[in-house]
Each structure stands twice: as C-alpha cells, then as structure tokens.
Design goal:
Layout: H1 2-9, H2 18-28, E1 34-38, E2 44-48, E3 54-60, E4 73-77, E5 80-85, E6 90-92, H3 96-111, E7 115-120, E8 141-149, E9 154-159, E10 162-163, H4 167-173, E11 181-185, H5 189-195, E12 202-206, E13 209-210, E14 218-220, H6 221-237, H7 252-270, H8 278-285, H9 294-316
Helix pairs in contact: 1-3, 3-6, 7-9, 8-9
Length: 317
C-alpha cells in the first residue's frame, strides 16, 4: 500500500493538479517502454509497449476535499485506511475518489507489457479535462475502464441517458465472478468520452472508497484489491476490440433514481452529526448529481431535519 499512501499525501484540488501530474510523470518515466504526453488542458496520456490494440484505464487527477493539513498522514488500521491531522486532531479526506483509480492504473502499468492510461484534470467540477481530451488517443483501444465509483460491487454500464458498453464486452468481462453487479451511475469521464464519440465499450467500477467528497472518506483495502483483480482479469481475458455505439436511453426514471441516491448519500453524511449548510451540500455534491439544482438540495435538507424531528418525538413518547 506504499504507493497508495504516497498518492493520498499529494493534495490535488480541482484546477491545482500540478503536483499530482508531476508525481505521476516521475513515477512513469522509471518504467521501461512508456511514453508520456500531455495536452493543453493538462491531461496526461501514457502508452506502454507497441501493439495493434491496447487495453485502456482512465482516472481523474483532482479531489474535492478542502482540508489537507501540512502534517496530513494516512492511518492504516486492519482493512481500513483514512487520513488524519495530528496537529488539528481531525480526520481529513484522502482524495481516494479518484486516487484509488490512479493507483489501479499505475499498478497495471507496472504489470503489463502493453497498456494505455489517461488521467484527466478537473473531473469533479464537470469533467473539464475529458471534455477537452485528445480523442485520437483512444482509436486503438479495445475498451476503456474507469475505476471511479464508491463501494465494492458496482459495474456501471449506463450514466444518465447514455449507454456505455456492449453485451459482448460485459459477458467477456466475467464481472459476476468478482461479486460485481450491473448498475447505472453518475457523471464521470467515461460518459464524457462516449458523448464525444468514443466507439468502444466503457465501464466505471467501484474501487473501495467510501463517503467520498467528505473529510470522513476512507478506503477498505480488500474492496480496492477486488477491483484491481477484476481490472487485471479484464485486461488478460478481453483480448478483442469491443465496439459500442452510444445509445440515448429513456431517462425518465433515472432522474428519480439520481435524486433517491442523493438522498441516501446526503442523509448518511448528515447522520454523522456535523453541521452542514445547503450551500455546503451543493458544493460537495453538484458534480456527483448534476441533474439536481439548489432547490433539490433544499428539499433533501428539509426532509432530513423534518424526519429527525419526527424520530425525536417518537423517542420522547
């Protein structure tokens, strides 16, 4: 876990990813046979080996958390890793969303002879980097994997109204053997790439981080390792190219699902007992739930406190 801990210590808020870019650049140049390129937006593109087609992993470089003290350190206890400042006596977010994805990508870069990686800036503020990506980089990719989903069992095959991958790719991926289940997800870079014309199958995978976008964020190591194992399985077994044309799906019920998912996540955050304003919630989650506006956050906030008043009243009775 030493590489992972080093990544966690690099503070990379949206728009200020330079330190992370430098870290990855220096790490990558020590790996034989790799070529590193960048673009005007600051995205990184890495190619290892010579091949007719490549597996491809993407991740984003930025994080949401505003707290990152000079004495920030990682604490590893059993299966859990979290961030902590001794001087300030507080837990601080790891930026595991999406440093866990970066870690998986770099582990695979060490292991495989031919691979492509892309690391995007400013995903958390609206997929800015992938919106300016050099799309020709993906012309010889067989598929694109993004490990950028909280939890441990989701394989995202639809985002919003956009389908991401073909049934043939899903069958070849063998994800069920790793305890994963198919679901739909929220805005992230692979959706942006598909909407910009990417012609191969993409997925987004749960990679072991929890309570993202908060200072209580933590990683469960076995869940991260499970994601790495699935990614390695796909690289080793999905040796064909898996074309896929984006389909715009009926999204009427998905809007409700996104609100419902936001309720679950924000309620869990508020249950921790800290005081958050509606503006705080909007700042933390607007990139995760892009369909929701400030009125939706007001509604969730009000529903939470109304519900807790009811529960408090029941306890008194």
């Amino acid at each position: 876990m030493e590489l992972l801990k080093k990544l966690y210590k690099v503070y990379s808020p949206s728009g200020k990813e330079r330190t992370m870019i430098k870290f990855i650049w220096n790490y990558t140049k020590r790996i034989t046979g790799t070529k590193v390129e960048t673009d005007a937006a600051g995205n990184l593109y890495i190619t290892k080996g010579e091949a007719e087609s490549y597996p491809c992993i993407v991740a984003h470089l930025d994080q949401v958390q505003r707290l990152h003290s000079k004495d920030f350190t990682t604490v590893e206890t059993g299966e859990i890793i979290f961030g902590y400042s001794s001087r300030n006596k507080r837990q601080e977010g790891l930026g595991a969303d999406d440093k866990n994805g970066i870690w998986i990508a770099l582990k695979c870069l060490r292991k495989y002879d031919s691979l492509k990686l892309a690391f995007f800036v400013s995903e958390e503020v609206g997929c800015v980097g992938s919106g300016k990506a050099v799309m020709d980089f993906f012309n010889d990719c067989r598929f694109v994997i993004q490990p950028d989903r909280r939890g441990y069992q989701d394989i995202v095959t639809e985002i919003g109204w956009t389908s991401l991958c073909s049934p043939k790719f899903l069958q070849a991926a063998g994800y069920k053997k790793f305890g994963y289940r198919e679901t739909h997800g929220m805005m992230t870079d692979v959706q942006e790439l598909k909407e910009r014309g990417l012609q191969v199958s993409c997925i987004n995978l749960s990679c072991g981080y929890y309570e993202p976008h908060t200072d209580h964020e933590f990683t469960i190591k076995k869940d991260l390792m499970s994601c790495l194992s699935l990614v390695e399985h796909i690289i080793e077994n999905c040796t064909d190219t898996y074309p896929h044309q984006t389909e715009i799906l009926d999204g009427r019920w998905r809007s409700y699902d996104e609100f419902d998912e936001a309720v679950d996540e924000i309620f869990a955050l508020l249950d921790q007992g800290e005081l958050w304003s509606i503006e705080d919630l909007y700042y933390m989650y607007h990139s995760v739930f892009p369909k929701l506006d400030m009125e939706d956050y007001q509604r969730i906030y009000t529903e939470y406190y109304n519900l807790n008043k009811i529960e408090y009243g029941k306890q008194k009775l």
